[in-house]
Request: fold
Amino acid sequence: MRTFASPLFATIVVASVFLSSTTVRAGMTGGEPGTCLASPGMAPAGLIDGCTAVIDNPETSDSDRLNAMIVRAKAFHDVGQTDKALNELDSVAARDPNPAHAIRVRGEILRMSGKTVEALQALNEAIRLEPDNAQGYEARANVFNNIKKYDRAIEDYNEALRLKPDFALAYADRGAAWYFKGEYQKAIADDDAAINLDPNRARTFTNRGAAYRKLGNLQHALDDETAAIRIDPSQPEFFDNRGLDLAGNGDYAGAIADYSEAVKLRPQANFLTNRGDAYQAMKDYDRAIADYDAAVDLDPKFQRAYNNRGAALSRKGDRERALQDYAKAVRLDPSDEKAADNYKQVSLEIERLGHLSDQTVLPSFNCSVAKLQVEKAICGDPQLARLDRDMNDAFLKAIASVENDSHRAALTLTKQQREFIEKRNASYGRPGYDLRQAMAQRADRLATIARQ
Reply:
């Protein structure tokens, strides 16, 4: 029985600390009042207009104007104008006698942009300027959470809570750190404290639900995800997380309804793959495969979709395509033992059924979607097709061999194989390039590695 991989984690999110005291209202075009106040219900575009009105109003005080620029910078980031946001914050920092707030927000934007080194530099400076401000430690802890330095993150959350014992967000985000460390009871305790302080924050409920799920308490998890959706039905992750709970309880139809809502709100490969898994559990393999197809179209490197599509194809009897998907899954993640075992099982079945005779041999990729001339040449020549499959089989065996010794070595070998394929694609058809010889030499080299 081929296995399909379940998602390892629900979606856990740490917060962003964008707090501002700016509540100034000012006239806008057409006489309509505008508000410069960061709030969950305010769309970024409206916030930009409201803050611009505050900034341009000559009656606005200097401190309110600077605060409005900080709020507008965050809104710029939210609409994809991150460079403009950072420039605005630099301008505030240059003019503000106490620039810690602007620098702190700058660090948060850098964190969300994936620039963790620059984010830490900014937040270290913000903490130096305001060592008694809990938000600085909370923000820096979020960076450590993002880079998986969970103990260091917890130290900063602890300091934030020492400075501000009623800081609900710090409890919630420390709960996320405990979750990532596998300390699920501690995660739940922190989420409990956060919910007592702020019962209207949806993400705390969904994070606590994920911890309950890890402990096998699916009913508590389901209750928390439902609470999160009731508070904020606009977040697709909440529906996806509840779908995981429903699927865990065997309610695949209910799970599919929630996954579908998540996909409607924001199509993502993991949402589609989860829905495909539910269809597969119901033995609706065609719909499952359609969802896996859509998932890899959105994200060609989403490894779990290939493995699980391989399982669905295998159950439909399409072993050749299943084998291709399992091979792709192993190439994307050489440490995935499930995918490697699935590949081995289907390979043996195909060999046993005689599907790999020279007359019907298929290469390691899907010829029906081949676009490159070299791929078409391989598909059209049984000997080249056999050589391609032999090379791929040798690669998978070599990966399994080196993975036992070193994950880094497995990643290096995967990179080398990718480079060989890229060179093959670029060189085919050029004078002096012998495709058959190049593939044979590569297959021999991989076979040697596999035997070591």
User: Anything to note?
Assistant: The mean pLDDT is 87. The first helix runs from residue 44 to 56. Residues 356-452 form one domain.
